[in-house]
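Dear colleagues,

For the upcoming journal club I promised to circulate an example of a predicted protein-ligand complex. I picked one with adenosine monophosphate because it came up in last month's discussion. The inputs are reproduced below in full, followed by the predicted structure.
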Amino acid sequence: MQLKSIQDADIKGKKVIARFDFNVPLSKTEPRTITDTSRIDEAIPTIRLLLEKGASKIVMISHLGRPDGKVDMKYTLEPVAEYLAQKLGADVILSESAIDNGVKNLLQLPETKLVLLENIRFLPGEEKNDMELAEKISSYGDIYVNDAFGAAHRKHASTYGINSFFKNRAYAGLLMKKEIDSLGALLEKPAKPFVAVIGGAKVSDKIKTIEKMLVLVDTLLIGGAMAYPFLKAKGVTVGKSLCSDEDVALAKQLLQADRGGKIQLPKDHVTSLEFGGAPISCPGNNIPADQMGLDIGPLTIKAYSDHLKTAKTVFWNGPMGLFENKDFAKGTMSIADTISETTCFSVVGGGDSVAAVQQSGKADKFSHVSTGGGASLEYIERGELPGVQALKYGV
Ligand code: AMP
C-alpha cells in the first residue's frame, strides 16, 4: 500500500497536527543556538505546502534530545520556534507544554496560524506510547501529518498511537514521502551493479544492515574501524586497532555467509601510534603491533573508487576512518568525491555519514541524503517502520 501524501490531501480550512523531527544539535554553552539547521530546513517545504493548500492552523510537534519524560529547559524548543519564525517570515507561538490547556483557546484566535508544542518528550507518556496523551494531542487537529522520518522507527504517542484517532485522515509529509521513496528504491529492483559502502565503528551495531546488504548488492565495500574485525577474522594482523572479539566472531559469520565473494576489505591503511596521533602510512595489509588503523590507504581508495565508478546504485553508511580529524579524513572524503562524480542513484543513510558528506561539500550531488540515522538503517533492514505502518494502515 502506498503512503498517502499531503500532496493528495484536502487541507483547505483544516487544522493540521503535524509531527516533525526538529531534534537538531545545539551549542553546548548558553545561549544555546542551533549548530545544524538541516532537519528544520528539510521540514519547511511541508509547512509551506500545508499553508499554500489552505490549512487554517498548523500545530507542530517534535522532540529534542533525551529529557526522559521530565521538563528540562536545556531541551526547550524555543530556539527551534525562533528559527522557524525567521525562516517562514511568520509568528510561531511556542506553547508552554504539549498538553497546555491554553492551546485549544489559542487555536480559537483567528490570527494564530502556527503553533509549536513544547518538547513532547518532556511528557512521560510520549515514549510509552500513552494513548491518553495521544488522544489529547489529537484533539488539536482535524487531520494528522507525519513528516518525522527520523523518529518513525519509534512507537511513541506522537508518531504511532496518535494514528488511531485519525482513521483515513493521516498523511505523510513531503520529507517522509521522499525518504520512503528513496530508501524503498534500494530495496525494490535497484539498478545493477549495486555497490554498498559500509563503515563506522562496530560490526555489531550494523550487523543486520550488512546481512541485508549482502542479499541486495553486487559488491560490499567495508571501511572504517568496521574493517578490522573482518581482517582479523581472515588472519590479518590489526595491531591496536578498534576490534572486539564479539565483532571478530560476527565478521567470521558474515564472511562465511558471503558465498558470492561480495565483501571487499582494505588493502592498506593510514595508522598512528595512538588515537588521533601523527599519521603513518601502512602500505600493506597487516598493521604493526604498536599501531592502530585510523583510515583506509591510497590503494584501497583506488580499488573502492573503481567499484563505485561502475555502479548504477550506491548506498553508503558510515565513515571510512576517523574523519573528524583531517589527518584521517582522506578515505571518507575521497569516497564522497567519487560518488558525487557518478551519475548513479546514490543514497547516504543517516548519522555520521551525513556529517561526512556535508563536510565534503558535495551533499547536493547525491540523489538522497537521509535525515534519519537509526530510522534509515532500520528501514533498510526490515523494509518497514512502525510510524510508517501506522500511517498506512492505522493502529
Ligand atoms: P558509526 O556511528 O558506527 O557510523 O561510527 C562513526 C564513528 O566511527 C566516527 O566517529 C568515526 O570517527 C569512527 N571511526 C571510523 N573509523 C574509525 C577507526 N578506524 N578508528 C576509530 N574510529 C573510527
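Two points we might discuss: Residues 38-52 form the longest helix (15 residues). The pocket of adenosine monophosphate is lined by residues 200-202, 205, 224-225, 242, 293-294, 318-319, 321-324, 351-352 (CB under 6 Å).

See you all on Thursday,
B. R.
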